[in-house]
Amino acid sequence: MSSTLTRPAGTGATRETVAPRRRTRIFALPEARWAAAALVLFLVALPLYLTGAPAWSWVPLFAAVYVTGGWEPGWAGLQALKDKTLDVDLLMVVAALGAAAIGQMLDGALLIVIFATSGALEAIATARTADSVRGLLDLAPATAARLLDDGSEESVPTEKLHVGDTVLVRPGERIGADGRVLDGTSEVDQATITGEPLPVAKETGDEVFAGTLNGTGALRVKVERDPSDSVIARIVAMVEEASETKAPTQLFVEKVEQRYSLGMVAATVALFVLPLLFGADLQSTLLRAMTFMIVASPCAVVLATMPPLLSAIATAGRHGVLVKSAVVMERLGQVDAVALDKTGTLTEGTPRVTDICPLTGSGMSEQELLRLAAAAEHPSEHPLARAIVDAARIRNLDIPLVEDFASTPGAGVSAKVDGRAVAVGSPVRILDDSTGHPVIAVAAGLEQEGRTAVLVTLGGAPVGVLGIADRLREEAPVTVAALGELTGTAAVLVTGDNPRAAARLAAEVGITDVRAGLLPQDKVTAVQEMERAGRKVLVVGDGVNDAPALAAAHTGIAMGRAGSDLALETADAIVVRDELATVPAVVRLSRQARRLVVQNLIIAATFITGLVIWDLVGTLPLPLGVAGHEGSTVIVGLNGLRLLADAAWTRTRPMGDQQQ
After folding, report:
1. Start and end of every P-type ATPase A domain (predicted)?
2. Among 116, 258, 363, 537, which is least packed by CB within 10 angstroms?
């Protein structure tokens, strides 16, 4: 099936067909089907039993309840026994059969129904967690238009695309694979991948991602990644891999669970045998022992840990943060110190024109100075050239074609623009600073402020200077403040940049501890010093030079869009959308998850302790014991799943920054 989405008028694209989000149907889960069957059979048998109908009318129905609701956990428990593992599910089935053996068939059937229902709820919750992550895959279209060598096209499933294929993306269509634009100009909505609120202009040479939405122009895109290795596919794979890991708390619970279960079985046997030795009634003694086995089972304790952590992983993944394991999600909430890289982390990682300074007396306006520089730099592939051209495009300046373009490495470029000779490059290389020309003072002033100065000459005469710098992320000051509030300690800046530029940026974001000019090994040393002081350090970085520090830290987070492959592999978590503000958000989410784990353990322990004492000291009715035990299991499971809601993520964001 497919649904048709009509785009608003005026966008240039009329329609787009996308597959609906795959959501697991409840009755597609075997646990839900068996639980539903057991419940229906129980509800049919119950009125017959209560109204005194003949036993032949309700006994087979109750027996069917035992089979439909109990065979699956019972079989799984028997399989676990082969590995010398005592499964609490098996204990529940044994308790139900024990109740039936002493004539309490209704109570045993009730236990089976509630137990099967709680198992179905757990399966549904797990499926919802998986759906919330796999739903990302539905952003990619089912088919793509692949161009053939003869110029024709064929429609192929996107999973059949190969690296090197060329696909045609029409206006309003979603892009089928990660690749690079070969031809065409358009704007692409990349919010699903990068979080950018506005469409991004794309032209020849620009990278595009699977699942993003093309705008008004047609694009020919060369596939550069296998569909299974696209950004979206990697998000899904990493979150699913994380879901298979177990946090230290969970491993501890499982270790205790085995010993506890053996002790509980021993206590149940003692509770049955010892009273009989003193002449107690068989039926009441067995009923008390079965009730004890039920209420003392650690089902709720087992469910206390993983649902909150897995829910937090899924929610973080939906909002652009890949947490690689439950271990990492638990550790994120423990950090009490933060070390931040500069370039690509606190800054955007791409140079921008920050200053346009026409020389006095040159007769040059800022617009004309930038237009000439952009025209001369347009054929160049240097990062500074791209910054100048981008600045001109942002201001909607006309960039004329040039003649006689020449590039001198380390010096700059020259070209004829509108028939006039224009040169753009290093002031020191273009001019002899011994001349004392005023432009040298302007350039020196810019460099003193941490900018890179670029001189523009017209006909050999200086006409102005451009200042270029890596722009600070808008959310950097708020993020630094939030991390300081969370950890209780001021963040540290660790960077390979020069001390002057590092100090200037640190002042802008509110960092006082600046460690500049560091090589990769120096960053590791700085992190180790902090950890020797008893700190659990969170390192946030993006480049190859950050990878050792990311590995050495208690927890490492990499900025995904600008991050190197090595940094992404080394880090414990990845900010896919390149939004720095998600770093404190995911730390807060981790702490929410840890609080829910503690809440769950308290809830489980309280229920178990109260019910066990009631059974040992007084007379706990079996149905009430069943309801209390299974009710606590359901409460714990649902409490852990609270973090699946988007509201859980919204609460992690500072006021005024709660829009995703």
Report:
1. 140-240
2. 363
